[in-house]
Structures are given as structure tokens and as C-alpha cells.
Amino acid sequence: MRKTNRFVALLMALVLVFSSAMSTAVFANEDVAGTEFEVTVGKLKAVGIMEGYPDGTFKPEGEITRAEFAKIAVVALGLGDAAEVSRGVTKFPDVPSTHWATGYINLAVNRGILVGYPDGSFQPNGKLTNAEAATILVRLVGLGPVVDKQGTWPANYIGRAANEGILKGVNVASSTNALRGLTAKMLLNTIEVPLWGADGYNNDGSVTYGKLSPEQTHLTDMLNVKVYEDKEVEGYDIDDNEITIDGVPTNEIAENATFDFYDVYRNLVDVWVNDDDEIIYVAKTTTSFIDAIEVKLGTTNEVKLLGADKTYKLATSFVAANNSDVNRAGGAVADATKYDLAKVVVDDNNRVIFVDAYTFVDFMVVDSVDGDVVTDIEGTEINLEDFQIMKNGMLVDAEAAVKGDIITYNTTGDGFAEIFTKSVEGEITNIFSTGIRVGGKTYDFNKGLVADITTLYVNEDGDLATFDTDAAEQMEDEGPIAIFLDREGKMLFVTGELGDVETSKVVNILTSDISTQTLFGETSIRAVVINEEGTKVTKTIALRDLDFITLDNTKVEVGDGVGVNEVDYFELTGADLLRAYNSADALTADASFGDLSAGAVDSQFAEDSIIEFHYDTDGNVVGLGLFSGTTALTTTVKIDKDGGDKYAVVGGTSYRLMNDTLLFDITDGTSADDTIINEWSAATDVKEVALGATVYVKGGEVLYIVSGSVDALTDETDVTGLLATHKLNAAATKVTELKAWVNGVETTYVVDSIAFADLPGGVDITNGNTYILTVDDVSGKVIAIADADVVTGGIQTVNTSAREITIAGTTYKLVSGFKIVDITDGTDNGEVINLVNVKAGNTATLVLENAGSVFVELVVVTNSTADVTAPTVTQQITAASTITANGTHVLQFSEELNVASKASVKAAVDAAFTETGAATVTSAWNAAGTTLTVTIAGWAASPADDVTLAAIANQVVTDLAGNTSAALDVQQ
Description:
The protein has 14 helices and 64 strands. The strands form 14 sheets. Strands 28, 29, 30, 31, 32, 33, 37 and 38 form an eight-stranded mixed sheet that branches. Strands 15-14-13-18-19-16-17 form a seven-stranded mixed sheet. The chain is globular and about 125 Å long. α2 crosses α9 (180-192) and α6 packs across α8 (155-164).
């Protein structure tokens, strides 16, 4: 049976949702909101340097290519528009003229910001390292000519970047790839630090460099942004999209500026204005709170936040002028007065500098929203078109409200409303004449914070009614209730089960047309149905036993609205089902419900239609619910449930699909065995409902769906499995069984005889490798096997607190729920271990969430044996000599060295080389950290460009496990 308190289940579920809701910055890129990158990304987005991706993300953990950073650098120079005219041929053979970034690359290279590699390439798709990023940014501020003469790269540039404040708030390894979030922080620092340039000459005629005077920055002088700090927001106009800020000479807002008017209102803010005198960025520098408040003036001079239970003293400036407003009507807050809602702004000393207060006179429980019109659960509509509406401290449209929300409001001026839901849950332990006690606290009836507001609930008829002692007694023994409160904790709305008040509505689908019969002068209808429980039921119902019939959501009862001499009942006149009544001794018929002619019944009586039976306590049908073509509609668009469709579309009208909408799937017929009935939220195996379905609607919502074409989702699940063992068929051509570690548990699967040809690479699978196993949810068999995306190598570092592992210079992050399996003792003898047991020097395979990502769901340790062997030299570099040719010279060690050893060896090798003429010498470690390769380029026989290699001292080195070698001879 379906109960009238359908709102109860919904609102009880919302208790957990809204009582834990947190306010976030709605305009930030979704993946940086609330993080250390939010302000940085907001500022760079405002000046168009780094704006994120079309899907609304910024991807702070993503890497940057050299071509992408060329664009970033050029835009930071204020030359974004000039890049278009610089498109075309570049000097780099690996950057064709058709490459999207040619204009940016040409400008950056011509300005000396970026350079190519010794082999003449630019590598536009190569990943930018932190060392390269720091170098480019130092050059951006004009320090390239200075730093090039100081020390060796990259230490010279990294040191200068730190000194100039470019690395403020950033801690990165120079050799690792630059990540978007940290690079954004470096870039913001760069555009705000002073610029350098030539300022004179030395005695030898060389140029000297210093900070430009008067001081200049990229932000103010190249991007032409005017900066205003700590200015008060005095007002705003939503319709005209304008804001008034004290001390800022413009109120126009750039089209792409993203901040909330009310969030910054009456706060002190930092403001950026572009050269079109448009505000492009606003950020608060003071703190504000949203809460119900109590004001005390005079000797006390304080404001109490009633919800947060915190008190703040008034600033001297507030006391002097009563810096406040009430209901946006120009009045000031009064002493010893409470306000339903207020924004309280405090200064750096936590003193109140402004209060924007409101009082509410009514509230509503949202049932549906259509544009600006909100309908409550009783069907009453209110148009919030001109209202200022707030949710989570931000201005929103009415469409931000969802079913079950509480909206409190007043109608002063254009009106002000807040979407706010706060609730408690528990059992009623005491009932008083003035209220109830739940969870040890008493809640009074009909007590708003400022004005008395009637406490409401949904009664047995599904209507809003005053919650009083009688209603409380109905709920008292029926389990927990939910109380929805205002900001001070006053009781507004109550939901709970009503004892002994259960309607007896049962929803059914007709398996054949309704027929009629008359026996002994009594007319009955006969209906064969499948009810909502999936049971076949045959009902013969005497029409004169019915108390009411509802047609298209309009209820007609016996005895309603007729004369005092009423003798009315339901009856057939011919084939028409009517309600008849006695008026002035003449029997009159009215309220026709449709034609029951055999073979030509109206749609509400036809096969495959929905009919509601209402039972009394004795199990007799006393009411019918019928739906004709005005409420039983045919969809004109398929309903893509798997794709997230929330509406059924009929022509140009959309009807909301509710969690408790009943789906009658008659794809295979309407027998009890074939009909599948589920609530919409529970129909988890439904992919889509084809167009042409019948939806039964009420007030914009879908009550029921009947469809003969419902597509199910494929019943299979992909899992990541570390293969421990597997078995083949007798011919050794198919896999028939396997054992794998899945979610930290060793699990045995029967395999649906997958041939080698259908396996990755067309060959047998390998124990110890990781695969994606597709498992049939019904049979439990593995029906497909695919390679997982993995990275394998020696672990360089392990950060347990940050849940990070570094392999080959890349740091990988372990996602929530990650597992680690150690198979050092064999694939069939693995064990689950903790991250603290994983050490640098272990060999591991990291299973990635997606190819190319840095997020890891499974770590497979393949060798956790303690490393006690010190590194040795396996290939010595060239002997001391004069080198007269281009080429490479290699120094190789037996295993990866730690960061300090790699730096010291590289420094010793670099110092041993001396180049003349046009010859260049560069060196670099390979990703595995075992091999240092020195590259000589630019050598020519005439004029002589010789390179001299001096003797290199023996080196003491340490591996990742901490084993230190004796002094090693690294040179032939």
C-alpha cells in the first residue's frame, strides 16, 4: 500500500543532506574551490592568463606542455593579441607552421623568454619541468641577462626565483614536471613582483640592470590592471549588473567577472579594474557571517550569532553611526532585538563594522519550482521574480530551490527570501500544551524567532495543517520524527509517521478492459489487474458501494455539493459511469467518468491503463482513481535514465520524475510473471524508456509510467585484478579459471573460456600482471580481460602522510580506498600491506585510474626485499682529453641514486667540461636516475670549437635505500 505521507520519506532523507551542507565559492573552477589554488586561479582567470577547461575544471594536478606555457608567458606579457600576427613558420623543425602555438612560440623565443634544445628542437608537446618554469618566469620579470651570468642552470634561476618572491608559497622539485596548480601560484607571484631592466653601464661599457623606477609590474603595466585594496562594497544592482565600491571610480563589471554580489556586500575587498574601466576581480579582505542574530546596544554593544552561539563586540565606527540596515528599508538595528537573518561583517580585530538584517513573516515547504514560481507541498504558488533570494550566503535564482527545501521570506519592498534547511531527528519523549520534547530539548508550537509563525505538518489527507498536540500524539509512538528549524532553532515544520492514519491506495495496471455486469438489480464493474506488488488480482466492485471516484486528480465524493435532500451514488446510465443525486425529488445525473461500452471503453478503463483502488479497513474497495487523456500522456522523447534524465517530455512540456514514481515495465507483457514494477529510484537496471510511454501526471510530477519498451543496462561490472594464478583448458588455448587480488581480497573466478586470441596481445595472460576483469553480475563469470593502465619501476620516495609514491621522477597520488599487495614471495603468496611498509628502493607496479593520470588505485610491490648493496659504476665516462666531435658521453651506475648524489655527480661532471667557440655541453639524468648523459653540440673543425674534459675526482654516492658506496672511479 502507498501512504499519503509521501513527503515524509523525502524530507526525512533531506535531514542528513541539509544539516551537513557547507557553503562553497560557487564561481570557482569546481576542482579548486576551497583549495589553496582558489584565489590564485580566480585572479589569473580574471586577466585571461589561465582560465581552466571547458568542462569547468582547472585540473591543478595536470601537467603543462612547453607550447601551452609559451602561450601563458606571452599572455602574461600582455601580447596575447600580437600572437595571431606572429603565426606561421618557426625556427624549430619539430614545430610546423600549422601548429596552434606558432605565434606564441615565435614571440616567446624572440623575446628571449623561451629557448629550444641543443639539438635544435623545441619539443612543443614535451612536459614543462619546474626548473624550466622557474627559468621562464625569471626571464619574464627581466632578469634573464643578470641570472645567465650567475652560477649554473638551473640552480641559478631557481635561487633567483626564490629571492624575487616567484616561489612564494611553492615547494617543488626542480627536476619534476610542473603541475598546473603550483605553476599558477608561481605565475601569479610573477605578475605581481617588480620588473627589472637596463638602468646604466659599467666602466667597461657593459649594461647594468636593476628594478625599474618608478616601480612596474606585469599586472599594472603590461596587463594594464589598476589595483584597489581594502575598499568597502556599498551597494549593487542585480538587474543592471553594477556594483558600487567606495574609492573605485567605476561600477561596471566585466562580462566574465565571477563573484557574488551579496557575498562581498559591505565587506572590504581588493578590486582589479581593466583598461576598459571594468571590474574584473573582487575578493573579500574582511570576514562576514550569515546567521540569526540578537543585537544589544548601549553599554553592552555586541551582536550575538544565535545559530553559531558566538558574540562579537561592535567596532567604534559602528557605534558612532549604527552602521546597519533592516530589510533594505534604510532603518537601523534596534537594541535588545532579534533578527531572523543577518549578514555580520567584522574587521581584523573581530569587531563588527556592519550588520545587514532581515525579519521573516512566513515560510513555505517547496514541492516544485517552475522558473520564478515556487509551489509548496499544498499547491500554493508564490512568484519570487523580484525577490532577492539567498542560499548559503550567495544570491541565487528561485530555481536553486529543490523539493523539500524550506524558504522563509518577507515581502518588504521587492521581497527578500532565504533557502535554508536545518533539522533535527529523534523520537518525541514528552508532549506539552505548548510544544514537544525531542532529544532532551523542548520545541514550542508556533514560535518564530521574531514573529509567531504557525508550525506545520502534512496531515493524513496530504495537506498542510497546524502541528499541535493532537498531531504530536499521532506521531509519538510511530518512531523518529524530523523537525525543520529556523536559524535560532524554532520549530517550523515537522515530518513523521502518523499512527493509524494510513490510506489504502493501491496502484494497479489493467490486464484487460474493465467490464460491467448487473446482478439482482445491482451494477458492478469487474477489473483484472496486476497490483504494485506484482500480484494478479480480480475485483468485482459494486458501484453503489463506492464513496468517491477521482478522475484526473479531481475527487468527487458521495454527498458533496448537492441539495439538502441528497440521495446520491455512482451508477451506470447506458454505458456511462455517472454520479447520480436526488434534487427536488427528481433523480439527476452529473459528473460523468467515462464510457464503459464493451469493446470501446474510454482510455481510463482500457487494458494497460493505471487504476487506483482505495480500500477501507475491512479490505473493501471504497474509491477509484482514474486517469483520462488529460493526465495520462504519451511521451514524445525517450527517457534516458542512465544518462540522468530527470523529466519526461510530452510535446513541449516536461514533467518531473520523482524518486517514488512507479515504473510499470510491460515489455514482456502484463501477466504477473512478465510485468516488472519498481520505484524510479530503485530501477537501477533501467537504461532508458522508449518514447511512446504513458506517463500519469499530477501538478508537474510523474506519478506512474507504463511502457512496453524498456531497455535494461548491461549486467556486468569491471574490476581491477592482480592476477595470482590461472588455469587453461586441456588444449591450453583458453583461460578457464583465475585467482586475482580484487579490492584487497584474493578472489577466485570462473572464466567464460576466453581464447588467447581475445586476450591482450593475443597471448596468454601473465601471473603478477594487473588486468581489468569484466564480470557478469548474474553468473559471476569473467567474460572479458583487458590490460590495466600501469607504471612500473623502482620507488624513489614514499610520503605516507600525503599518500604519494614517486617513480621515475613522477609523483603519484593514492586515491581513497587504495590497496597495496606485496607479491615479493610469489604471485600465489601475496599479502595486503600498509603504505608504511612500502619503502624507497622497492620495485612496484602502480595501477592508474586512467592512462596518463597520476592517480593510483592499486600498488603491487614486486620486490620488497631490503636493498643492502651500494651502487657501483657500470660505465665510466670518457677519459680526460680534448674532444673534437659532437656526440654523447655516458656515465652509468648500477642502480638509481638519490637526489643529492645525482646533483653532486652532475655538478662534478659539468665542472670538468670546458667548451670553446660555438660548442655547447649539456648533461641530464635519465628518468630511471641511473645514467648521466653529456651531449656535445655545435662543434665545428674550423674555427676550432674544441671541448676539454678534465680529470673528475672519485665520487661517493648513495642509492634510494640509503646504501653509500666507497669512492668510485667514474672516468676511464
